[in-house]
Amino acid sequence: MLRLHRLSPHSLLPSLHLLRLSLLVLLTGAVVATVGNEGFCSVPASVYASSSRSLYGKVTNPTLSPIHLQDLPGFTRSVYKRDHAVITPESQVFSPLPDWVDTLGAYLISPAMGAHFTMYLAKMQEDSTSGSPPKDVERFLFVLEGSILLSNNSGTIYELPVDSYAYIPANVEHSFKCKISATLVIFERRYVSIEDQYPEQIIGSTDKQPLLETPGEVFELRKLLPTSAPYDFNIHIMDFQPGEYLNVKEVHYNQHGLLLLEGQGIYRLGDSWYPVQAGDTIWMAPFVPQWYAALGKTRSRYLLYKDVNRNPL
């Protein structure tokens, strides 16, 4: 026969005490994780605890990463596969950039994973200066936070605030400095030359670029570099309103390097589906199936590298 036992209030006291103690331990651990010492390659706790109000503040301060996830050993959303990779902020590793002064960099895409270009973040400190790319390597930089001063071999100096960019052809002397601090995303690749075709230095900003036609698609598109033959890659800025998505499920020979600047959504890469948010980086190898849909309540914007104008042979 089943007997039902009546629990007295006194019998519940040890369990309630244990529950309160467990909650106290969890809260204390969260505080310790927030104020603990930063390791050389660690992401500062303040990155997750606060949000910048700058245009692309969620790239450098990803507020959508809950602070309690720092207490899960081994947790990361980053994925690396043969034909694609998703590199998320909690797994970025910063170290001094060679030939740069007072600058930490995190390489997110490189030939080691199968790409023919590099993509990296550069965090410039007060009075820092850039190094030069290797011989025959072209460079594109986009300012995510702060501002820099770019100078070239002609002696001209350009001030580049957030949302500004510059393309520097291979073997063109240049440098950029930072008075206070700045964060840049930089693309570099070995230039594929064509006879009698020579690219020129480009300085610009996203808001000065016109919206282009996108037949059959609903997203907004801006191209930051000329589409003419001297340029062997381009950088696109693509905007999606919540609920919008790519119509074409793309499979093509071009490689991509992507940085999500604003918003969140779902990215299909091969047979996998990834929730992504501002601050995430994606590498797409040739011919990997790819598709994106914007979710949430705000606009999605991403910056996209694409090789162009060259025969794949």
UniProtKB/TrEMBL annotation:
Secretion signal span: 1-33
Single GO BP term: allantoin catabolic process
Keywords: Signal
GO MF term list: ureidoglycine aminohydrolase activity
Pfam family, one: Cupin_2
Highest rank taxon of the organism: Eukaryota
Keyword Transcription regulation: no
Annotated Cupin type-2 domain residues: 237-303
InterPro entries linked to this entry: Cupin_2, RmlC-like_jellyroll, RmlC_Cupin_sf, UGHY, UGlyAH_cupin_C, UGlyAH_cupin_N
Protein name: Probable (S)-ureidoglycine aminohydrolase
Organism expressing this protein natively: Ananas comosus
Lineage: Eukaryota, Viridiplantae, Streptophyta, Embryophyta, Tracheophyta
